Amino acid sequence: MKKTLILLVAIIMLSLMTLTACGGGQTEAVTVPPPSEPQEVVEATVSDPIDTNETSPPEEEEAQPEPTFAFKYGDVLIEMDQDINYVLEKLGEPLGIFEAESCAFDGIDRIFRYPGMQLHTYPKGDNDFVHTISLRDDSLRTTEGGIRLGADIQDVIDAYGDDYEFDTRLYRFRRGMTTLEFITEDDMVMGITYGLIIDI
Fold first, then answer.
1. Phi–psi pair at 25, nearest 5 degrees
2. Domain 70-196: which CATH class?
3. pLDDT digits (tens, 9 = 90+) for 26-39
4. Is the pTM here over 0.70, yes or no?
5. What are phi and psi of 100, to 5 degrees?
6. Rg from Cα positions in the chain
């Protein structure tokens, strides 16, 4: 900004000298008396051009999906509210299937039995979706915490934290619209169930 001001003053001085030299044959020296008081120097301000490329609004961050509980059976990750057809395709033929008229939904509730695990589904439209996974023996462990039947409840709290609901013998942990429940007896885990919270 100062360079611009100095350049502007230099151009004005050069112009005055040129006018004096071209005005006639003779030039007179002009003396300017010094000012009695210091004069305030006002610097001209020049606005910088607006760079439209730099002022573009920041991109909005994509909303992260809400964390949920899911169970990994072997190499297959089973999620709550997942289409059972996808799960069956990955797991293969179940040991057995139990069917009953649904009390809460329009259609048939089904239980698919696999070694150490049961998958419960509910009907929605033309398909069935996972709403409960029950671990049935100590050969299976929870995916994140590594908890199995027979574990001490303190191991559960160490793995999943103390943000849980307690009701008689039931410890319930919530993530989004999913739950992970541990049924205990004498502080020992006797049941493990993953569940889906469904608004009916």
1. -75, -35
2. mainly beta
3. 444 444 445 455 55
4. no
5. -155, 150
6. 40
